[in-house]
Amino acid sequence: MPYYLLLSRSITHAQRMHSVLGKNGISSRVFRPPVGLTEQGCGYAVRVAERDFATAVFHLRGAELLPVRVFFNAGDGAFREIRP
User: Fold this and answer.
1) What HEC string does 17-73 produce?
2) Which of 7, 33, 51, 64 has its CA 20 to 30 A from that of 73?
3) Residue 71 CB-half CA count within 13 A
4) What confidence score (pLDDT) does residue 5 get?
């Protein structure tokens, strides 16, 4: 299933993004991102389904909690960086 990874620099930022999404009815999950997606292995990721991405960015922008980087996975295991 296609999904987006919203990267953050800290667990706190990721948890805040997760909270904003949850309050707006968007399912997400916080975890450590795959190796190679972050600089120096730092950071956390919030996973959002493809169908929820546009709404998620809208709510995160409103809360001033945009991710540092965003990656898309079409379900084939390969990640492609995008600009939200």
Assistant:
1) HHHHHHHCCCCEEEECCCCCCCHHHCCEEEEEEHHHHHHHHHHHHHCCCCCCEEEEE
2) 64
3) 19
4) 95
- pLDDT tens digit string along 22-81? 999 999 999 999 877 877 667 899 999 999 999 999 999 999 999 999 999 998 889 999
Q: Residues 6 or more apart from 18 whose CB is under 8 A from it?
A: 28, 29, 30, 46
3-state secondary structure of 82: strand
What is the C-alpha separation between 57 and 60, in angstroms, rounded?
A: 5
Of 30, 42, 24, the closest CA to residue 5 belongs to: 30
* pTM as predicted: 0.90
